[in-house]
Design a protein that fits this description.
- There is one protein chain.
- This protein has about 190 residues and is mainly alpha-helical.
- Helices cover about 85% and strands about 0% of the residues.
- It has five helices and no strands.
- It is elongated and about 50 Å long.
- The N and C termini lie far apart (about 70 Å).
- About 5% of the residues have low confidence.
Length: about 190
Amino acid sequence: MALATAHQEAAHAPAHNHLAINRAGLWLFFFSETILFGLLLSARFYLEGIHREELNQALGLLITVILLLSSVTAYTAETAIEHDNKKVASWYLFFTIVLGLVFAGGVAYEWSIAHFHRDEAFGSIFFTMTGIHATHVITGVFMLILVWAQALRGRYSSKNPWAVSAVVMYWHFVDVVWVFYYPALYLTK
């Protein structure tokens, strides 16, 4: 009996260790990305003090609400997988993808109507901050599409939620970055 229990524990240890390494790697990635985004945020204030050019306030608020709403849909998808509700998870992954694309489209539209030039200090930092953030959003959308495709095939469950959880954590991270970027770019004068 004790031998069978020891064998079962040994069989589960590699999977547990693998998951722990994945989580540690994800958190190290978040740490390095926090440094990048933080340096860009500090550069915004260093280069321009607290001055900013006029931006489309309504559009900035709208894309912010859309991105925050996408965190709700992502969380709902993750929670659904943890409760083995695969249909709800698939739908909410899809909604998150759509909201992410709408956000990216809003950023692209903002770029097309911005009233300043790329060679101005604020213009340079605005395009850099929003461009790098939008690149992360598009990367997140791509990862969400990959996870969504697998979710439609029934790959994830309460016993195997890691991929969904990891992508949702990434999505939340990108959303939190925007929570700091939005006021720095749109609200601070």
